[in-house]
Design a protein that fits this description.
Layout (H helix, E strand, L loop, with lengths): L13 H12 L3 H8 L2 H7 L8 H13 L3 E6 L7 H21 L3 E5 L10 H18 L3 E3 L4 H16 L5 E6 L5 H11 L2 E5 L13 H18 L4 E3 L3 H9 L8 E5 L4 H9 L4 E7 L4 H10 L1 H14 L5
Parallel strand pairs: 1-2, 1-8, 2-3, 3-4, 4-5, 5-6, 6-7, 7-8
Helix pairs in contact: 1-12, 5-6, 8-9, 12-13
Length: about 325
């Protein structure tokens, strides 16, 4: 008996179309309100978000630490346009740093500059950042400035260089391999002497300034090699096993860099890297403003979206 083989035809560009749709949905206020006020939505978000309060986040970091994984804690929030909210967000990070110091867990912090008021004024943003960096210096902590959409890239780098030149060397920057400008920015960061987290990028960007997936992968490998050769303790943020194997094949000094991954993503690979003697840091987000972050995680990998849809289907009532 001859069995017929069913062939799945892949629509060219389907993955890119799906990713773009999810990224655009991440800006939907109506969908954000529905999902964040839905008990099912909040439950599904726990795959990628370590709870809505600091206690839950610190508990999650303790579990990671027990497995040999360090962390970077991110209090979710971005695109703040109210000065009082930006000031409150900065105060929240000062409090987070204090709690991390008291708890003894092994974690630094990551933040977004639009959460600190970048869209309001650079002066406000700088004032808020300096409050946080002063507290971090006081307790010997490190602060990572997350990268955001390309609309903010130049301003984020300008603000970063400003605080760096003021003597706040306890901070680092994130650079995105999918942007065509990033090789120049890596050279700038190497010359400055700061720590870089290299990621692929998770925002919807036009092809005039961003590589496609294949180009992004090639650029990531190129920039990772440059950072390992000349950078200052880079963080290679990727879940791409092919890229990780290339890095391993270069046999870099495990003490000279760290792999970084997202909380809840490819946990088996995280355990394997730690078991192989590599340093690994998990990016651990928490807070009630998780919708945009959650949607970007769904857009990054089809497996994430399939997990969400499967859990959604299993949770829905069955019609009889």
């Amino acid at each position: 008996v001859t069995k017929k083989r069913t062939t799945m035809f892949r629509v060219p560009g389907a993955d890119e179309l799906l990713r773009g749709s999810l990224l655009h949905m991440s800006d939907s206020r109506a969908l954000a309100h529905w999902l964040t006020h839905n008990p099912l939505g909040r439950r599904l978000a726990t795959r990628f978000v370590a709870g809505e309060d600091l206690d839950s986040a610190i508990d999650a970091v303790r579990v990671l630490n027990s497995k040999g994984i360090t962390a970077s804690l991110d209090h979710l929030g971005e695109a703040i346009t109210n000065p009082a909210e930006a000031i409150d967000a900065a105060g929240g990070y000062v409090a987070i740093l204090g709690r991390l110091n008291q708890s003894g867990v092994d974690s630094n912090v990551s933040l977004k500059l639009t959460q600190m008021g970048l869209d309001i004024s650079i002066t406000l943003c700088l004032d808020n950042l300096i409050r946080i960096l002063e507290k971090a210096q006081e307790i010997g902590q490190f602060v990572r400035f997350d990268m955001e959409s390309s609309h903010h890239t130049s301003d984020i780098l300008r603000v970063f260089e400003d605080v760096w030149q003021r003597g706040y060397s306890n901070c680092g920057i994130v650079l995105q391999a999918y942007l065509q400008r990033t090789e120049r920015d890596v050279d700038w960061a190497i010359e400055l002497g700061c720590r870089v987290r290299l990621c692929k990028g998770a925002y919807a960007e036009p092809p005039t300034i961003a590589f496609d997936k294949a180009g992004t992968d090639l650029n990531y490998v190129k920039l990772a090699r440059k950072l390992l050769d000349a950078g200052h303790y880079p963080g290679l943020a990727t879940h791409d096993l092919r890229i990780i194997r290339q890095v391993e094949g270069w046999q870099p000094d495990p003490a000279s860099f760290e792999f970084q991954m997202l909380y809840g993503v490819r946990t088996e690979l995280q355990r394997r890297l730690v078991g192989d003697g590599y340093r690994l840091r998990a990016y651990v987000p928490f807070g009630s403003d998780w919708y945009a972050y959650f949607m970007r995680r769904l857009a990054e990998r089809p497996a994430n979206l399939m997990f969400f849809l499967t859990q959604l289907k299993d949770a829905l009532p069955v019609s009889r």
